[in-house]
Design brief:
The protein is about 30% helix and about 30% strand. It is of the alpha+beta class. About 30% of the residues are buried. This is GntR family transcriptional regulator.
């Protein structure tokens, strides 16, 4: 891959990628989409390209490569699935070189914000809903409550450097946490549980489910319904074994490295 004499803007990077694409030749016997995926991976790792850079428009890139948009999209989808590219939708959407993914250990009970702040300088929460409702059967069962018992439902989108990474849908027993929905829930809810109620989660049972997000979930996370995500069902308990939270969360694994740490007892 040749390098332009001057580097200045993302427009320069896009032009360089298109110029490199014009030189692309698929190795004999290699499917075109697989060869393009390998080429794109080399592009993403090249010193000319930085995390967060946008790839050229699909039509222009496919034309420069000499392939159909369908073939290009196969290659793009492969790299999106492995976390090397990120696709966003909307007026400013497109395919972007992935920023290194922050690590989240779901077995760590300190909460999401402190973990993300180890990797990125800014973590925010967008509160979508904080209401008290009657518990559905699955929520009541997870929280050891009778059907219809009052629970606080809190729905938030967690963002790392302005990018949505987790859709949180949490339920808390109202009888144990009065007035929770009136408190500031823009930060760590686990800190709120600890500081206001002395009810910090200490253990959790979790079920991990690979999914394709529903359209409304994908819109909130600014991703595509065709990009795989991770759904995590969690019941958290205090040190006394009291169920204090039931959550149904969706993690963007193209933006986060979700791990489970094991410890010998």
């Amino acid at each position: 891959m040749s390098r332009p004499e001057a580097v200045g803007s993302r427009g320069d990077t896009s032009a360089w990628i298109l110029a490199s694409a014009a030189e692309f030749v698929a190795p004999p016997g290699t499917p075109a989409h697989a060869a393009i995926a390998d080429w794109l991976l080399r592009i993403a790792r090249h010193e000319q390209v930085s995390p967060g850079d946008r790839l050229p428009a699909e039509r222009a890139l496919a034309a420069a490569l000499g392939v159909s948009r369908m073939t290009l999209r196969q290659a793009l989808g492969q790299l999106q699935a492995t976390g090397h590219l990120v696709r966003t939708v909307g007026a400013n959407g497109g395919n972007f070189i992935a920023v290194p993914r922050p690590l989240v250990d779901i077995t760590n009970m300190i909460g999401l914000s402190p973990q993300l702040l180890r990797s990125v300088p800014m973590v925010t929460s967008r509160l979508l809903e904080a209401v008290t409702v009657s518990a559905r059967h699955d929520v009541a069962s997870a929280l050891d409550l009778p059907n219809g018992a009052p629970v606080h439902r809190v729905v938030r989108v967690r963002e790392a450097e302005g990018r949505p990474v987790v859709l949180e849908r949490s339920h808390f027993p109202a009888v144990l946490l009065p007035n929770l929905v009136r408190l500031d829930l823009s930060g760590s809810i686990y800190e709120v549980l600890r500081d206001h109620y002395d009810a910090a989660p200490a253990t959790a049972d979790e079920e991990l489910l690979p999914i394709l997000p529903a359209r409304d979930e994908a819109e909130l996370l600014q991703t595509s319904p065709s990009v795989p995500a991770l759904r995590i069902l969690r019941t958290a308990r205090t040190r006394n074994g009291v169920a204090i939270e039931y959550s149904d969360d969706i993690f963007r694994t193209d933006l986060l490295r979700v791990v489970v740490s094991g410890r010998l007892s």
